[in-house]
Design goal:
about 140 residues; alpha+beta; two-stranded antiparallel ribbon; 3 helices; 4 strands
Length: about 140
């Protein structure tokens, strides 16, 4: 359906305006005022979040929304960058029911890394050159 320009009024000041789209509600002056208010509120939220992080009371960790294990470097399933539980066991840590509590997941085990299963090809398996892969 095509929008037809029509007369309307600003929902804040009541000034008569031409509505150019279905979502337009404000006159240009009120639109700028609302934009300034929204950006100021967002700025205040971001400042409060940064202050909380510096104090050590990160809101996401405090509310239990911490999704990344902070002990992955010392865990036998972890590495320097991420949790490798799925590559060692074959199933996801989250689907297995290991949730993160206090920055540590339930599957955390300190110690050496377990061995991964390395797949080896038999001598009878044909090795194809790169140009022949589409023929298989």
């Amino acid at each position: 359906m095509v929008w037809v320009t029509k007369k309307g009024e600003c929902s804040i000041c009541g000034k008569e305006i031409m509505l150019m789209s279905a979502i337009q509600k404000y006159c240009p002056e009120c639109r700028q005022i609302m934009r300034n208010i929204a950006s100021e509120e967002g700025r205040k939220r971001e400042i409060a979040r940064r202050i909380a992080i510096r104090r050590g009371t990160d809101p996401d960790r405090y509310k239990g929304r911490d999704t990344e294990c902070r002990y992955k470097t010392s865990c036998k399933y972890g590495s320097a960058k991420f949790c490798e539980y799925i590559s060692f066991t074959g199933h996801s840590r989250l689907y297995a029911g290991y949730k993160i509590e206090n920055g540590k997941c339930g599957a955390y085990k300190r110690g050496g890394k377990p061995r991964r299963v390395n797949l080896k090809l038999d001598a009878s398996t044909p090795v194809l050159p790169p140009g022949k892969l589409n023929e298989v």
